[in-house]
Amino acid sequence: GQQVMQIPQYQHVQEGEDFTTYCNSSTTLSNIQWYKQRPGGHPVFLIQLVKSGEVKKQKRLTFQFGEAKKNSSLHITATQTTDVGTYFCAGPGRKGKTSYDKVIFGPGTSLSVIP
Amino acid sequence: DARVTQTPRHKVTEMGQEVTMRCQPILGHNTVFWYRQTMMQGLELLAYFRNRAPLDDSGMPKDRFSAEMPDATLATLKIQPSEPRDSAVYFCASGLVGDIAGEAFFGQGTRLTVV
User: Fold this and answer.
1) Potential cystine with B57: which of A55, A93, B3, B47 (Cβ 3.0-4.6 Å)?
2) What are the DSSP calls for A20-61, one per residue?
3) B2 touches chain A (CB under 8 A)
């Protein structure tokens, strides 16, 4: 079945430093989503990328979809303590040659920010 | 403010007991997902429904788990009999899905502990 992998698993940064998490798939993705989950909370949708090479920004967050649509990244500039949480990428599930529109989550990158 | 509602928020039960978790999706959403989150396995997709019809429950242990959507305002996930390894946070999410998966809105989750 479809799998998306993420690295790193954990990242500890000093407040003000930048942070990047990477998402990789062995197959081409029709789209990719990013979610954030605060400790003790539930996943919250951040963004969806659909086009090859797409780059989207949300304030200090920059999301990128690879040209081959097999990888994606999330970059946070000048981290703040409010950025703490786990960041998940999520792609559509795939079975054989049929692409389903269910949402399969990667393992996530847990970000800690040291004040 | 539309939101996905899950009940109960917490459940402690003894091994062998039946557990029923409920979810009220956002009105107008055509897709409902059930996820299980553990430290070891991350966010696993158990089952999902489109327009109340089950599309895929391959992620669910069939012998003890069952998911249903008796009407558009209620989705249920049952475990019978429950086992300690079922202890996890169970999330319901809903979304409006077209050609590609859109944003999934998550409920607060049900934290299940089986002793």
Assistant:
1) B47
2) EEEEEESS--S-EEEEEE-TTS--EEEEEE-STT-EEEETTE
3) no
pLDDT in tens, A63-101: 999 999 999 999 999 999 999 999 999 988 655 444 456
In terms of Cα–Cα distance, which of A36, A101, A102 is closest to A74?
A: A36
Contact A79, A19 (CB under 8 A): yes
Interchain CB contact of A55 with B (< 8 Å): no
Question: Which residues have C-beta within 8 Å of that of residue A89, sequence separation ≥ 6?
Answer: A4, A6, A21, A23, A32, A33, A34, A35, A72, A74, A105, A106
Pick B96 or A46 by higher pLDDT: A46
Distance of alpha carbon B84 from alpha carbon B61, whole angstroms: 14
pLDDT-wise least confident of A2-16, A17-31, A100-114: A100-114
pLDDT digits (tens, 9 = 90+) for B15-44: 999 999 999 999 999 999 999 999 998 999
